[in-house]
């Protein structure tokens, strides 16, 4: 019997920011999702621009969680997420580019984490650092559950899964009976929320949802989402890399 998660419509786009283009740096964001198992899983990771191998840290985190979480029992999901992140950290500890070959070298791979696991009518966000996620649970989009960014004392400081105290920084947010999920890296949160993150910005999010819901061709929908994040205005407002993932459950 085919998994019900395969009926979930998912689209994502990752755009390199002009700041990285000017510096001749690759995009530091990475995004993966899976509809092949018992659980729908989606992961976004933003590699720290100040970290030498932030892009690699983001990729290894996404790949590891997508490998390990699609078929774990949902009742054990928090433990499974913790274990999966720890597995990604172990990979970095022995990575060929980790010259120290120990945990002290992990900060060279620093990256944030925004993830979701959804099983039947139950879902959970897990989050380290900035970026954001939304689960819409009301038909008119006025009711939603948010996983907000979390930064440090300074506005430019955030948290990473490579930190020694990462377990103290991970946040879990549960929700039920959602019909739409939106997840984004820090480069998109300014378009999606009010400045205090207390309210969403419907003039940005709702047109995206309407178009992606109605567009039958995935290639056209993906291109439109990419173009939306690539407009000169969007790039001017925030020069950082931009990742946006949309899922209709």
Distance between termini?
19 Å
CA radius of gyration is 17 Å
**Class inferred from helices and paired strands:** alpha+beta
**How large is the share of residues in beta strands?**
15-25%
How many DSSP-defined strands? 10
Helices and strands, in order, run as EHEEHHEEEEHEEHHHHE
CATH class: Alpha Beta
Q: Give the tally of structural domains.
A: 1
CATH architecture: 4-Layer Sandwich
Order of the strands making up the biggest sheet: 1-10-9-6-7
By CATH, the superfamily comes out as PPM-type phosphatase domain
CATH topology type: Phosphatase 2c, domain 1
Principal-axes geometry comes out as globular
List low-confidence stretches.
none
Largest sheet: 5 strands, antiparallel
| Helix content percent band | 25-40%
- What is the overall pLDDT average? 94
Query: What's the tally of helices?
Result: 8
Give an overview of the whole structure:
By secondary structure, the chain is α+β, with helices and mostly antiparallel strands. The protein has one domain: 4-Layer Sandwich (Phosphatase 2c, domain 1). Helix content is 32%, strand content 24%. It contains 8 helices and 10 strands. It is globular, with a radius of gyration of 17 Å. The mean pLDDT is 94.
